[in-house]
Amino acid sequence: MNINWFKYASPASFYPLAGKMIPWFAIPAGILAFIGLVMGLFVLPPDFKQGESYRIIFIHVPAAWMSMVIYLAMAFWAIVGMVWNSRLSAMMAIALAPTGAMFCFLALWTGALWGKPTWGTYWVWDARLTTQLILLFMYLGYMALHAAIEDPRRAARASGLLAIVGAFNVPIIYFSVQWWNTLHQGASITPNKSEMAASMASVMLIMAVAAWLYAIAVALKRVRCEILDRERHASWVAELVTKTGQVHG
Amino acid sequence: MKPRQQRMAIIFGGIVGLGLVVALVLNAFSGNMVFFFNPSQIAANEAPSGKAFRLGGLVEEGSMRREDDGLTVHFYVTDNAERVPVTYTGILPDLFTEGQGVVAQGKLDENGHFYASEVLAKHDETYMPPEVAEALEMAKGARPVASSLAQ
Amino acid sequence: MAEWFDMGKHTWFVWGSYGVFAFFIVAELLLLERRRRTILQRLSRTSRMNSGVNDET
Question: Which chain A residue has the Cα nearest residue B100?
Answer without folding.
Answer: A49
